[in-house]
Amino acid sequence: MSADRTAALLWSATLLGAAAAAATYLVYGGPRFWANWLLWFIFLLSIALGALFLVALEHLVAARWSVPLRRIAERISSLLLPLAAVGVLALGSLPALYPGSRPEAAADPVLAGKASWLGLPFFSVRVVACAALGLLALAVLVRGSLKQDRDPDPRYTIRARRFAPVGMAIFALSISQAAFDWIGALEPKWYSDVIGVYLFAGAFLSGLAATVLAVLYLMGRQRLQQIRFDHVYNLGAWLFAFTVFWGYIAFAQYLLMWYGNLPEEVVWYLPRTGGAWLPVAILVFVLQFLIPFFALIPMDAKGDLKRLRWVALVVLAAHWLDIYWLIFPVLGRSLVFSWPELGFALLFIGGTLLCLRRAMELGEDMPVGDPFLKEGLEFRL
Amino acid sequence: MSETFAVLGLFDNAEALVKAVPGLKALRLGRLEAYTPYPVHGLDDLLGRRRSPLAGMVLVMGILGALTALGFQLWVAAVDYPLVTGGKAPTSWQAFVPIMFEVTVLFASFTAGLGMLHLLNRLPFFGHPVLQSKAIRGITRDRFALALEADEGGAGFDPAAAQAALETAGALEIEWLPAPAREPFLTAVFIQRSLAGIAVACLVSGLIMYGSVQMMPVALPMRHMLDQPRVDPQQPSSFFKDGHSMQLPVAGTVARGFLPPGFTTPEEAGRLVNPLPRTPAVMARGRAAYQTHCVVCHDPLGTGLPSLSAAYGAKPANLHTDAIRGYPDGQIYGTIVLGKNAMPSYAADLSEDDRWAVVHYVRALQRAQNAKAEDFQ
Known about the structure:
The structure holds 2 protein chains of 2 kinds.
Chain A: H1 3-28, H2 30-60, H3 67-77, H4 80-90, H5 94-97, H6 109-118, H7 120-150, H8 154-183, H9 195-220, H10 229-260, H11 263-272, H12 277-296, H13 305-327, H14 339-359, H15 373-377
Helix pairs in contact in A: 1-2, 1-14, 2-3, 2-4, 2-7, 2-8, 2-9, 2-13, 2-14, 3-7, 3-9, 4-7, 7-8, 8-9, 9-10, 9-13, 10-12, 12-13
Chain B: E1 4-11, H1 14-27, E2 31-35, H2 43-47, H3 54-80, H4 93-120, H5 136-139, E3 144-149, H6 159-168, E4 173-178, H7 188-215, H8 266-269, H9 280-298, H10 308-312, H11 322-325, H12 329-338, H13 352-369
């Protein structure tokens, strides 16, 4: 398929999806519309943040092997720019989805105590602050790296390495805050300290999966010719490792809350592991942990392009389902899935792919100005 | 001197060694083995080593570990002795997962470690001829050695041809290694046999112990405190003819201090006079008896408001009411002997003197709650 036809197809999918989204608002009203909006915002945000974390991690530990692959993660993290706008728009979901932000919350003694925190003014301040910090990290890490393509000066690398530890702290705080605000506040009487780590585990996993898919896509177009088996193997090994990390975190939170059986903890799991949502919960665990785990156990599988492609797709689908399972039970006890969800999928997948097609042309395919690129290309297991 | 075990050729760097491998391998002069100070990538493939079966072993043992832990916990918690813990069902799989995870890691890591070292590499092997060679110091530092080794039995190995081949391939130094003169002390086989011996000894002694306990129940190995001259509940006494361990009093006799009362109601007992003097010793005796038997219901002050009344619903008498303060001594004595309302008789618990001492003590309690001005003089 020619490039123009692909673009036309993506544009028409996006526009069709936008029409379906508008129709959703008119037919089903606010909550359904905003739940979908929030779902896609969190899903795409975690991919972009996961990719940015990958970039920051490479600078933090001064990794050499991943230098040839860094540009791909940088390009994916540039999704943060449009996502900042999507996130600010998502504030529209505040009264519709969040019981703690409604006026009647003042009648509830627990929610009244949280009103100043969950109310729209301070909520917006936090969202804008997190977005600003994310864009700052993007500017230092990614824009500097893109500039280095034309101006091969090591000072960009030095600056990125100095920024990386600070960026990590910012990242940890802001992704925790995002998880508490956007996900935890859906059940305002729920307490969980680990939900931030839970979102981080999913974010890193899906950022990694998106990077794998982009690398395979570019390799399929005869770009990234110098990438060897060893680099791909390392990506696969990382995907494998963080599959286990996600499973560990997800189960740890569930086990402790199941065992303690405290009202302020099980309020989250009761609707999400009961009735129609139990099969979804099981499916999330199977897709995000069991299948990738067993698919990536053999040594050859981690460097097998075909297998990595479908495992990465499964991981992304599982992460989407995971966020769906976190958010949608606020709409009701029965499963909510029909044409509005498909419409939103068209809108956001189309839009994201359009953005990524342009992002994949950012700079060179590899950070050619990076002083460690040669060493990275020579990497062997 | 015995026959030659191997011919060792030394190279300066890994590249030279890797380059020499294919040619030497094609000549088939013996088993080709490499000794290097660090792992050289790709050497395993060049030498034609098979893919290690370790990964599969670890996978199988890991799954086995998970199933073992699951089986153990299911058996203990749900089948053999079902126990509700924390209000959860006995078959709560969630609680089993941490143990399953740990045992999976345990089985898998033991398999990986012991399997790699012992089963696959046959370690420890202290008597390896290369360890005795002059070249070993270099091999552990900066030299790379290729060895052509005699196959098991050593038939058909030509050391001279091997030396020539190694020199042609670019070896800088050559060393002939003699076969080990005797079996080395700590071989893998020795350790395997020792472990197997220990396992068999444990199994046999365990079975003997089990059998002797199961099949000879009379010969309990240790009785100690089980052997006591006492009558256990529900067991007949062998000491008395009637089999009872507690005997009834002989007909027509009365035990000392337990004369039957000469009255049938407390009021009737009102005519009795307290025979005991009001001395400190008598007061102390009355206080001790009161605090042993009366205090649970009537409370230390005699108000009748103790904690037990809430549990049983009874309302013990307040000893400070005008009615009870107006009782003659004998009526209080009679109440102790016969009981009143829900209060049972305490005749069996308190001797006659104890009862009269308690009467004195109750009088003292009543006086303490209703003190007159002269009591404070």
